[in-house]
Design brief:
The complex is a heterotrimer of chains A (151), B (49) and C (672). Chain A has 151 residues and is mainly α. Helix content of chain A is 62%, strand content 3%. Chain A has one domain. In chain B, α1 runs antiparallel to α2. Chain C is an alpha/beta fold and 672 residues long. Chain C has a domain of 234 residues: P-loop containing nucleotide triphosphate hydrolases (Rossmann fold, 3-Layer(aba) Sandwich), CATH 3.40.50. In chain C, the strands form 3 sheets. In chain C, strands 3, 8, 11, 12, 13, 14 and 15 form a 7-stranded mixed sheet that branches. In chain C, α7 packs antiparallel against α12. Classes of the chains: A mainly alpha (151), B mainly alpha (49), C alpha/beta (672). Chains in contact: A-C, B-C.
Chain lengths: 151, 49, 672
């Protein structure tokens, strides 16, 4: 039974730096969840990471269990990815974790490209602005939903 | 007076003597000696009693 | 002197024969040579100096073209040459200088010798060659002592306004050397006659002569001391005015400093405000910002799950437990017995039916998603507040930083010294000047004493004694003639020096103020120092790089102008001449303001101007100012063995590149 969420070795330094030096996230788990959400919001996932080089410091699933919404996030991602509600039937948790890992990996890639290397002089601002930009996209969709609803 | 004419002549001749050698960037001792001698002779020639 | 063309043979990076023609038009006197830094500009400048005067400004081993050297055998001699064609005083000259270099090994060359050939065509069409080749150019075309005024690198121009260079320039260009020599030689001639008198003197006359000689030598010493003191006093005065300007600036400086401190305090408090913003939102961003990113997907799935509930998929209308019970009982809800077919149907429904756990999980997920959505919205609001706050703070920080850096650079310029230090310096200077003045007064009175009393008496005695001796009279007469002629030249020199200085000052002032668009009082004083003062309050401005450049270029331009004026007037004593200007990087290291000022005026500095510019100096604004005066554009094309990436690596500051061909077989420069 899977006990930890892995992420690619190539992002090890970034993960450490984001928590320790730049102090953008309080815990590793929160950063991983954020990255998975980046991938989810971009509908992007890296299927090929099965054989990749994993970091030697994966995050224990227990830690995710203790979080308020973290397991729900994983469920959400799995549901969105498989488009099959039966993924939640309790017998597929292993696969949920594996799917989560893929989204984490892809999300880290995007984070590295768009937030981390942007300008490490003002990391917090960069992160804030990234979230702000992402949010604006959503808002325009909200509008669509309104208009659709009205129609 | 006579004197003034002599001086004027000397002034002009000295000018010509200098002009001939003006191409030299600097004048070494022997060249200078020659030139001064020319001037001395010039004055002597113009002040014969 | 006006250049028509330059031809190089295996010179520096120029392989084989390369030729360049210059613009000789009066309306468009400028020739621009476009070249990147490091591709041959300095060598080309050196080609002029080497061709004319045999002067090396680069290492001798850099002169022979590397490729040409590689093509000959060890022990063979390579001939390198520069040929200059120019017009001067109605003659067309072709000067060629040849350098012979022996190849000692694959990397070593030895310079053997140079020789020069000078040929000219005079106004009648006749060809001739002057007798003294070695000194002809220096004497008849362009004085070598002035070469640095007419061929130079923009960034070195400022040394040209040092007093020794100024005075030497004036002397050389005006042919004053001749007059100085005349004075010196007449002095020696006079001494000859004095000696004659001495030789024939007997007894008292000899004694008197000796006394006269010793007093005169003492007088000479005193005069030297007086003049040294005067020079020092004058330099001190200039220095004092500079310090006084600084003092005045210092009051401003103090207030600038306090404003700076205020700004820095504001900045510190803004930075701490920014930190607080960050801290307050860090937590919420860390835990929940992701909910904003995926809010649409959350919405979609809430809809999805509700949909499934509507359709009865969750919670299932049919429970697994119920079906198991029914199967166990072998009975349907309606009570009828289960046959094989019904059992199969029931089993398949059971398999599709969701378990309690599953149902709970889904229900929880739906609740959580709804919760996340709400949380996402509140994070979003918090983010709004955060962003607008940060933007506001950043704007204020940006403008503060601008103000701070402005003030800091002003303060840096002023070489901030404390007010009391500066006042002490002034007192020191005043004290020194005071003491030198006192000293000079003493010297002058000594010298007057000697002259008016002792010397005068001695000379009267001498006259008497000479008169007593007829033989001495002639020598005396000759001594007098030499003296008079010498005094004539002395006066002439003084008058000319004054006149040239004053004319130069006036042209220099006009040129300088025209370029700077200002109204400074500019003068070249007796000690040949350039003094620049503000007319309104007499303050000496502390010069920026740009101002120094303008000062030197104005000075050179005025020299050229004055030389031309005297040349045209065909004055007996003042040679003058028409000279061109060849400047490497006239705009280097200058801010756009000064670049513009100089480019507006550079065409008017001489009848012919050749400028070497790199692509980064050939800005649009420089181009706009100069284009109407440019008669010819020339491009140096550089071939390098490096690739573009390699080349840029070593030239990180190269924002613009002109004509360069990368990945070439070997390095060389071509003239296009």
């Amino acid at each position: 039974m899977k006990s930890a969420i892995r992420y690619p070795k190539e992002y090890e330094n970034m993960v450490k730096s984001v928590k320790e030096d730049l102090a953008l996230f309080n815990t590793y788990k929160e950063f991983l969840s954020f990255c998975a959400s980046i991938a989810l919001s971009n509908d992007a996932v890296d299927e090929s990471f099965e054989d990749g080089d994993w970091s030697s410091q994966p995050i224990k699933i227990d830690i995710f269990n203790k979080g308020e919404y973290d397991r729900s996030l994983m469920d959400l991602i799995a549901l969105h990815h498989t488009k099959d509600i039966s993924i939640l039937n309790g017998e597929n948790d292993e696969e949920i974790f594996l799917i989560f890992e893929k989204y984490v990996a892809k999300g880290m890639e995007i984070f590295q490209d768009e937030v981390y290397t942007a300008n490490n002089k003002t990391p917090f601002e960069d992160l804030t602005l990234y979230i702000d930009r992402a949010r604006d996209n959503k808002q325009s969709n909200l509008l669509e939903e309104f208009t659709n609803f009205v129609d | 007076m006579e004197n003034e004419k002599v001086i004027k002549k000397v002034v002009e001749e000295v000018f010509r003597i200098e002009r001939k050698q003006i191409h030299l960037k600097s004048i070494n001792d022997s060249v200078e000696k020659t030139m001064v001698k020319k001037i001395v002779d010039l004055i002597i020639n113009n002040t014969k009693s | 002197m006006k250049f028509t063309s330059i031809k190089l043979l295996d010179f520096g990076p120029f392989e084989g024969t390369e030729e360049l023609d210059f613009s000789t038009s009066l309306k468009k006197p400028i020739t621009i040579v476009h070249a990147n830094n490091g591709t041959g500009k300095t060598t080309l400048l050196n080609a002029f100096l080497w061709g004319l005067f045999g002067v090396y400004h680069v290492q001798k081993k850099e002169i022979p073209n590397h490729h040409a050297v590689s093509q000959i055998g060890i022990g063979d001699v390579l001939k390198v040459s520069v040929e200059l064609k120019f017009t001067h005083e109605k003659r067309k000259y072709t000067i060629a200088r040849y350098g012979n270099f022996k190849k000692k090994s694959d990397i070593e060359v030895e310079h053997l010798n140079d020789n020069i050939s000078i040929v000219y065509i005079d106004e009648n069409g006749g060809t001739d060659s002057p007798p003294n080749l070695d000194t002809f150019i220096d004497q008849n075309i362009l004085p070598e002592a002035l070469k640095d005024f007419f061929f130079f690198h923009g960034e070195n121009a400022k040394i040209l306004t040092l007093p020794e260079n100024v005075s030497s320039a004036i002397k050389n260009i005006m042919g004053i050397t001749l007059l100085e020599r005349a004075e010196k030689h007449l002095k020696k001639a006079k001494r000859y006659f004095t000696k004659q008198i001495d030789l024939n003197a007997e007894g008292s006359l000899k004694e008197v002569n000796q006394n006269i000689e010793s007093i005169e030598s003492e007088l000479a010493k005193i005069l030297t001391l007086i003049s040294q003191n005067e020079k020092l006093i004058s330099t001190n005065k200039i220095h004092k005015t500079e310090i006084e300007s600084k003092l005045l600036d210092n009051k401003l400086t103090e207030s600038l400093q306090s404003t700076l401190n205020q700004h820095q305090n504001s900045r510190d408090s803004l930075l701490s405000e920014k930190k607080n913003f960050e801290l307050s939102s860090k937590n919420i961003i860390s835990t929940s910002a992701y909910m904003i990113l995926i809010s649409k997907i959350i919405d979609d799935n809430i809809v999805l799950l509700n949909d499934k509930r509507k359709r009865g998929e969750i919670p299932g209308k049919i429970r697994k437990v119920l079906i198991n019970d029914l199967l166990a009982m072998g009975e349907c809800i309606c009570g009828s017995q289960l046959d094989e077919k019904s059992i199969n149907i029931l089993e398949s429904i059971r398999d599709k039916a969701i378990s309690q756990k599953f149902e709970n999980r889904v229900a929880e997920l739906t609740n959580q998603l709804t919760s996340m959505k709400e949380r996402g919205n509140s994070v979003s609001d918090n983010l709004d507040g955060n962003i607008s706050g940060l933007i506001r703070i950043q704007e204020r920080l940006d403008s503060l930083n601008g103000l701070i850096s402005d003030i800091e650079s002003k303060l840096d310029d002023k070489e901030f010294e404390s007010v009391s230090d500066l006042r002490d310096k002034i007192k020191e200077i005043e004290k020194e000047n005071e003491s030198k003045l006192v000293e000079n007064t003493r010297f002058i009175s000594n010298s007057n004493n000697l002259q008016n009393n002792e010397l005068k008496d001695l000379k009267t005695d001498r006259e008497k004694l000479i008169k007593l001796d007829n033989r001495q009279e002639t020598n005396k007469k000759r001594e007098d003639v030499a003296e008079e002629a010498m005094v004539y030249y002395q006066n002439l020199l003084e008058q000319i020096n004054d006149k040239v200085r004053s004319e130069l000052t006036s042209i220099f002032s006009e040129t300088y103020n025209r370029i700077m668009v200002s109204d400074f009082e500019v003068l070249i004083n007796h000690a040949f120092q350039v003094e620049i003062k503000k007319r309104t309050d007499g303050r000496v401005p502390i010069e920026s790089e740009g101002q120094k450049r303008v000062k030197s270029l104005s000075f050179i331009g005025s020299l050229v102008s004055l030389a031309e004026k005297y040349f045209s007037s065909k004055n007996t004593f003042l040679k003058g001449g028409i000279f061109p200007l060849v400047i490497d990087s006239p705009f280097g290291e200058l801010d756009p303001n000064y670049q513009s000022m100089i480019s507006k005026n550079i065409a008017s500095l001489a009848d012919q101007v050749v400028l070497f510019v790199s692509p980064s100096q050939w800005t649009q604004s420089v181009k706009n100012e100069l284009d109407q005066f440019v008669g010819k554009h020339v491009h140096l094309k550089y071939y390098t063995t490096k690739s573009k990436e390699e080349f840029l690596q070593n030239n990180a500051n190269l924002k613009l590149i002109g004509d360069i061909e990368f990945n070439s077989l070997r390095e060389k420069t071509e003239i296009n």
